[in-house]
Amino acid sequence: MIKAKAYAAQNPNETLAPWDFARRDVGNHDVQIEILYCGVCHSDLAQINNEWFPGVFPMVPGHEIVGRVTKVGDHVKKFKVGDLAGVGTLANSCGHCQHCEDGLEVYCENGVIPTYNAIDKYRDNLPTYGGYSNTIVSDESFAVSIPENLDLAATAPLLCAGITTYSPLKHWKVGKGHKLAVLGLGGLGHMAVKFAVALGAEVTILSTSPHKAADAEKLGAHHFVVTSDAEAVEKVKASFDFIVDTVSAEHDFDFYLSLLKLDGIHIVVGIPPEGILLKNVGMLQLGRKSIVGSASGGIAETQEMLDFCAEHQIVADIEMIEMKNIHSAFDRMAKGDVKYRFVIDMSTL
Ligand code: NAP
Ligand code: ZN
What we know:
The chain is of the alpha/beta class.
């Protein structure tokens, strides 16, 4: 076993604290990565608080992992020692169902194994531990190559916030001629803005935070609407082809559906623990609208997204933090006060 250090929650709702534990040895198809940076996703906060389901504890959160390869297994083809590599939200999948064969591991028919908060039933029945740690061992097929021409720390959030917003935009073929709204300007939201702009859409940010208006233009958005401003909202009624919904808390779907035009698509990527509630089914029927969902993305598409970012010089806007300040970062994140992704400098572990 490999000695590893991390910040972990020993029980639900507990403060993260230093924890020494063991990673599996590097197998024939594994790479070991020295973690240099790890992004802080709202899902980390949700899972240590058991907001979705009873979690696996001790829990080491973190699924926006970038670093250098320090060891490779005998049969590894994709990586050599010294390469930059990343690990996102996926640790493993069955590998043989149709979706895995199609490169859609995140939709594995037998159940995908997330990077943390899971038991890896396909390998050793041991818990998976995430990236708030100094090192990780990953099957090479679940690791991606990080382009050398991007700022490394700002690349970490691409591994979740990036792929989770890139994937639905590609799936629903968002591009020139489309009017798209990004609902919620946080980690996922600001990446959705950058990708949608790069793909040629006309992008509006729908936000509850007036003070974020100043950043809209910098992020490339064409319009910014505060959702409590009735007059501004009236002007965008029935105007969007797509809404990319990144909101992490309960919100009013009837209201947001009214902003879609005929055949408009409301893409839910946020995970409100309360679920979603549509009171007026007519909002869907009158206008032939759809509410759809999307999970992070497969490994091949994650690599495609990183290559797209390298070509278009896209990274996240980040605030770097020391590991010990993770709880003040969580507190700010819970209040929607992130510009626009916290990234942990893992040398401070
Ligand atoms: P985040 O950085 O905290 O951003 C969420 C944003 O939502 C906030 O900045 C805020 O933006 C807005 N918001 C918060 N509370 C709101 C409310 N009550 N009403 C309206 N808007 C509100 O979170 P994130 O890391 O981007 O994650 C967003 C959500 O996606 C989380 O639920 C997370 O668990 C989920 N997620 C899903 C996947 C997936 O695979 N589908 C992957 C990663 C994350 P404004 O200030 O602009 O209003
Ligand atoms: Zn995430």
